[in-house]
User: Which sequence fits this backbone?
């Protein structure tokens, strides 16, 4: 018969504790820009998408985030019009997402 050693005995409670910490934080990693929360995603280059995400993550104030978001929307709208396209409205706001996560005041 196999007798579990201390390492095996402690593994399950430690895994449970880690899971509880991850679940209690409400999110598992940094906020990510994506097509659902970034208006004009399809009009941005990969480098612009990275910069957009970096910029949004840098805010600590909701109003500053919203001001940037509105300027970004205007820029993407102008790009779309120049290409004869229209932008679909996004269901989610990155600033609202960041505030809900507790990243913005």
Assistant:
């Amino acid at each position: 018969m196999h007798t579990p050693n201390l390492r095996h005995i402690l593994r399950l409670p430690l895994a449970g504790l880690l899971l509880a910490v991850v679940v209690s934080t409400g999110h598992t990693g940094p906020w990510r820009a994506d097509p659902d929360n970034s208006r004009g995603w399809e009009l941005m280059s990969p480098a612009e998408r990275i910069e957009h995400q970096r910029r949004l993550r840098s805010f600590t104030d909701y109003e500053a985030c919203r001001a940037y978001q509105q300027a970004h929307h205007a820029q993407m709208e102008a790009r779309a019009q120049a290409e004869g396209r229209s932008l679909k409205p996004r269901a989610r706001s990155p600033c609202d997402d960041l505030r809900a996560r507790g990243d913005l005041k």
